[in-house]
Amino acid sequence: MSEKLTSDKFWYVVHTYSGYENKVKANLERRVESMGMEDKIFRVVVPTEEVVDYKDGKKKVTQKKVFPGYVLVEMVVTDDSWYVVRNTPGVTGFVGSGVKPIPLEADEAQTILEQMGFEQPRSKAHYSLGETVKVIAGPFLNFSGTVEELNPEKGKLTVKVSMFGRETPVELDFNQVAKL
User: Are residues 23 and 82 in the same domain?
Assistant: First the structure.
């Protein structure tokens, strides 16, 4: 392995000892920094998802590993970067056939990152300030009101609705309102 393997950055799947995913992530991030590989190894991610559990009437949110025993690494594969990842304690190897690691397809990586909340597509605000909208879901169903604030990053807007003769601001998701 003397020549450069690839010149593009891709996501690669690294196999680890099961239960050591977070340790591998921390070790690899430390090694990248100490060995000056920030220009070749960009991100290390342990794929997780939030799981909501109800116990004794209380809601508990926990992180569950989606692919136990695997870590995703965004990197440009060169002899040096391959060596750094491959020789990180807890790493058993890259997923792929033979010597050359095989990157994830772009859409596969995008799907995994979106499930984790990374690189999530932002909601588009099809509403404008001062516009009148009707609430179509939630506790304020069938109320109408005026858009006061927009927060496209969170997919929310604040609508002033008339309740008991008073204007009251209500925060709603974009999918809870419709244009009149």
Answer: yes
